[in-house]
């Protein structure tokens, strides 16, 4: 075979592969939709007072160790999420920090914890199903008994959320799992439970999204009410009994955190619900007066990277059709050429 | 070595030289560090952090290391698929180097895995997650390591005089050869696909999206050719044998064609994605991009003619540049161009570097041991000096 035939053959092989890839458009993987029962958090930076009660409650609820960043190790002072910390409140500061929720000469608070992506990169990246997305609630969970510690999830997450305990000989991934271990006791995410201003709210994503839209529609300075704790849909509350009811009904009503409301004044919001569209959507939604990029959140396209990566993988390897076809062709060619060599009496091996 | 009907034969000679002792010492140091890592964790020996969860043990030992070990793949592709029998003498030494490159890359991954005792989960139904690019890479690399040991088995069987087994294996060898071409095509391209899910965390100069598998596959074959030239030249010099330039020159011609095609693909991709502009920014990424591109473009100029390719010196220099280019493409993609947000830094620790150095030393040591004791290199007269 001369050089010309060599390149012809290469070209033919390449074209065959490309044609094979192009003929499988059914393999294209769209960004996953939001599970209808998805639960998550709504974080409102304007309501956050930076008290960090959520940071302490998260540590307690998840049995996470203290982390120190000061010389005298008096109290838990994490600077970022880490192998020891699943949730932090960070401060944005600019100039003389005159006003809250203002970009210039202002300051703001921002929560950092798992976004519970609708189509998470970590789940797509994980080779051993240690990262899973619950089909019903959409909570992204981690199973250390399955994990091999490859840290592909850490590298893949665009929010930098999964963290790893590098200092341990038996390390593991640390990430917020929305306190699913408390769900069976009728409890919900500890960060939302303790938040005094309702800056972090827990609830169904559909309900939270409505609440976020309601706030964005308010005029700055307008009087309103803010819910606190667990925000439930109106019809759900009705089933649980109204707070103005009597006896048992009234007690149930009071037990319902979703009924906790307090009067407040609408702040100045950017007209943007972060997480509604970003990356195919996230189950943590955020409102803010300061641009999200300034608060450390990336400007992401509506398509998830998992969809792109899996489209590529499925196109090349879907049903193992292409690899088997190529293997067949290679076997045929190799057999002919190895035989050819035998006849010549050449060495092979 | 002009006469390529010469059968492979053991080189013989002493295994204890100052050079092999140095290699042995470096390997032992790496072994001690790895032992330490098992007891005290990755953080005790590496500079890894949550901004750079992958360091050189992945970016170099696996991604670059396995690409450097593509000589066996490239030669098998040439000899058995494109039926270019004249390169046959190059197959076995190339395969041997690949065998060690891959086996050690595979073994070193174990030490990089935080929860290494669970590594078998990748192959286990129920755990295995087939949508993961990592799954595909891990399974294909593992399978390829097994296939290469089978492909290389005739060398051992010859030495041990197991003719029957050898003949039986020879009858089936064509199938393993086919697998040995398919598997690296799959995982070498997938090593590029690993970056797809990193999305915008990879600098636009290296985030080629759907073209990543093609770019990594083309350079893997290119590196395979370059490494064969590099190793053939070194082993001719190191073992005082005649240079194999008559076989290498036409090989270089094929390599040159592939190189030209690669440069076209790479530049077109950058143009079409509108990423080339960022190459003119005053950033480290832009700087290393130009160094990387120079490593590919310079051989395009220096190896352009048949005459140039017959010069052993030029050929060697070209091969070294291409290896450097392939190295940079991968290090740039996985580390230099990996932007995970402000405040994160990574440069390998001395211990991390010593493990990588020790691994390379061990590969060379094992190669020397095998070619001195087993029939790998074509029997030839030593070059007269």
Automatic annotation (TrEMBL), chain A:
InterPro entries: 4Fe4S_Fe-S-bd, 4Fe4S_Fe_S_CS, FDH_Electron_Transfer_Unit, TAT_signal. It is found in: Cell envelope. Residues 238-260 are annotated as: Disordered. Residues 1-28 form the signal peptide. The keyword Repeat applies. GO terms for molecular function: 4 iron, 4 sulfur cluster binding; metal ion binding. Its main location: other. PANTHER family: FORMATE DEHYDROGENASE, NITRATE-INDUCIBLE, IRON-SULFUR SUBUNIT (PTHR43545), HYDROGENASE-2 OPERON PROTEIN HYBA (PTHR43545:SF1). NCBIfam families: PRK10882.1 (NF008134). This is Hydrogenase 2 protein HybA. It comes from Candidatus Desulfobacillus denitrificans.
UniProtKB/TrEMBL annotation, chain B:
The keyword Cytoplasm does not apply. Keywords: Cell membrane, Membrane, Transmembrane, Transmembrane helix. InterPro entries: FDH_cytochrome_b556_subunit (IPR051817). GO terms for cellular component: plasma membrane. The keyword Transmembrane applies. NCBIfam families: PRK10881.1. One of its GO terms (biological process) is anaerobic respiration. Its main location: membrane. It is found in: Cell membrane. The chain crosses the membrane at residues 12-36, 56-82, 94-113, 133-152, 172-198, 210-234, 246-265, 285-303, 315-338, 350-370. This is Ni/Fe-hydrogenase cytochrome b subunit. It is a multi-pass membrane protein.
């Amino acid at each position: 075979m001369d050089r010309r035939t060599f390149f012809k053959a290469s070209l033919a092989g390449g074209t065959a592969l490309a044609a094979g890839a192009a003929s499988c458009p059914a393999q294209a993987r769209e960004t996953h939709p939001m599970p209808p029962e998805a639960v998550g958090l709504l974080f409102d930076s304007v309501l956050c007072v930076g008290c960090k009660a959520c940071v302490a409650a998260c540590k307690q609820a998840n049995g996470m160790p203290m982390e120190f960043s000061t010389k005298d190790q008096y109290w838990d002072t994490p600077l970022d999420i880490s192998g020891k910390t699943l949730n932090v409140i960070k401060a944005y500061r600019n100039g003389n920090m005159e006003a809250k929720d203002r970009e210039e000469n202002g300051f703001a608070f921002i929560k950092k914890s798992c976004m519970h992506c609708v189509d998470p990169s970590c789940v797509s990246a994980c080779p051993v199903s240690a990262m899973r997305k619950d089909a019903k609630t959409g909570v992204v969970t981690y199973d250390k008994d399955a994990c091999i510690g490859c840290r592909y999830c850490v590298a893949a997450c665009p929010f930098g959320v999964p963290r790893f305990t590098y200092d341990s000989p038996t390390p593991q991934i640390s990430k917020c799992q929305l306190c699913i271990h408390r769900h069976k006791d009728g409890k919900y995410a500890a960060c939302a439970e303790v938040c005094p201003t309702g800056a972090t709210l827990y609830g169904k994503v559909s309900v939270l999204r409505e609440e976020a839209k309601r706030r964005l529609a308010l005029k700055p300075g307008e009087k309103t009410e803010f819910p606190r704790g667990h925000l439930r849909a109106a019809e759900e509350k009705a089933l649980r009994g109204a707070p103005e009811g009597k006896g048992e009904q009234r007690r149930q009503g009071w037990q319902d955190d979703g009924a906790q409301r307090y009067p407040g004044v609408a702040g100045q919001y950017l007209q943007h619900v972060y997480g509604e569209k970003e990356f195919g959507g996230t189950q943590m939604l955020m409102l803010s007066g300061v641009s999200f990029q300034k608060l450390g959140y990336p400007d992401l396209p509506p398509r998830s990277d998992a969809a792109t990566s899996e489209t590529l993988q499925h196109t090349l390897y879907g049903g193992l059709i292409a690899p088997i076809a190529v293997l067949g062709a290679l076997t045929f060619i190799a057999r002919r050429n190895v035989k050819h060599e035998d006849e010549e009496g050449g060495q092979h091996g | 070595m002009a006469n390529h009907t010469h059968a492979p034969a053991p080189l013989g000679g002493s295994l204890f030289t100052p050079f092999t002792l140095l290699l042995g010492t470096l390997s032992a140091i790496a072994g001690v560090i790895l032992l330490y890592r098992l007891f005290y964790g990755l953080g005790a020996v590496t500079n890894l952090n949550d901004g750079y969860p992958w360091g050189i043990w992945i970016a170099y030992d696996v991604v670059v290391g396995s690409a450097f070990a593509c000589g066996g793949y490239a030669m098998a592709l040439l000899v058995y698929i494109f039926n270019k029998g004249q390169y046959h003498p190059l197959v076995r030494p190339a395969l041997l180097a690949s065998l060690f490159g891959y086996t050690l890359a595979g073994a070193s991954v174990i030490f990089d895995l935080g929860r290494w005792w669970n590594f078998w989960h990748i192959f286990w139904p129920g755990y295995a997650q087939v949508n993961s690019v990592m799954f595909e890479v891990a399974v294909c690399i593992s399978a390829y390591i097994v296939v290469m040991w089978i492909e290389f088995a005739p060398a051992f069987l010859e030495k041990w005089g197991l003719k029957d087994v050898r003949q039986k294996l020879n009858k089936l060898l064509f199938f393993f050869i086919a697998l040995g071409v398919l598997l690296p095509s799959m995982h070498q391209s997938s090593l590029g696909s690993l970056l797809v899910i990193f999305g915008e965390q990879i600098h636009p100069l290296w985030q080629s999206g759907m073209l990543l598998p093609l770019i990594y596959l083309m350079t893997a074959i290119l590196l395979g050719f370059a490494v064969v030239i590099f190793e053939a030249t070194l082993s001719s010099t190191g073992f005082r044998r005649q240079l194999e330039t008559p076989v290498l020159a036409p090989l270089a011609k094929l390599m040159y064609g592939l190189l030209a095609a690669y440069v076209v693909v790479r530049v077109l991709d950058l143009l079409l994605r509108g990423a080339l502009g960022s190459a003119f920014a005053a950033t480290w990424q832009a700087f290393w991009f130009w160094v990387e591109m120079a490593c590919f473009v310079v051989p395009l100029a220096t190896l352009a003619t048949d005459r140039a390719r017959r010069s052993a010196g030029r050929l060697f220099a070209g091969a070294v540049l291409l290896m450097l280019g392939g190295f940079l493409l991968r290090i740039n993609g996985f580390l230099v161009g990996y932007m995970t947000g402000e405040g994160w830094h990574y440069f390998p620790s001395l211990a991390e570097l010593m493990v990588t150095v020790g691994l390379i030393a061990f590969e060379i040591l094992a190669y020397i041991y095998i070619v001195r004791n087993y029939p790998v290199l074509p029997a030839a007269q030593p070059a007269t000096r």
